[in-house]
Amino acid sequence: MAVEAYASQNPDKVQTDVLSHARQACYKARDAFYACLEKESNKKATEIASVGLLYPIDCKKSRAEFENNCRPSWVKHFDRQYCANKRVRRLLEDSDSRRGPLSLPQPRPSGPAS
């Protein structure tokens, strides 16, 4: 319903940020920002992005470019996706150190009890 209402208000307007070249610019800026995050991961995160993502001040320029080239909803989506992937990677890496000996339930004897 909302799409039809929006389309009826702007029947001839093309959203240029969803065209191929604009999407490619967004993806390039996104990749540059997250590469900076990985490269500078040993530095203290002092800046706050959407969804609570923290990043070092060295990545501020690439973050601004990322926000300028992408829709705000895309930025939020990519931030959530990055945080979720980071959380999964951390859990998978940490699981080996936390894993104890594997103990499976032992089968019960099926014979009569004495």
Automatic annotation (TrEMBL):
Per UniProt, the ranges with Pro residues bias are 104-114
Q: Which InterPro entries match?
A: COA6_pln (IPR048282), COX6B-like (IPR048280), CX6/COA6-like_sf (IPR036549)
Q: State the name under which the record lists this protein.
A: Uncharacterized protein
Protein localization:
Mitochondrion
What organism does the UniProt record list as the source? Nepenthes gracilis
Identify the Pfam families for this entry: COX6B
Q: Which GO terms describe its cellular component?
A: mitochondrion
According to the record, the residues making up region (Disordered) are: 94-114
Q: Which UniProt keywords apply?
A: Disulfide bond, Mitochondrion
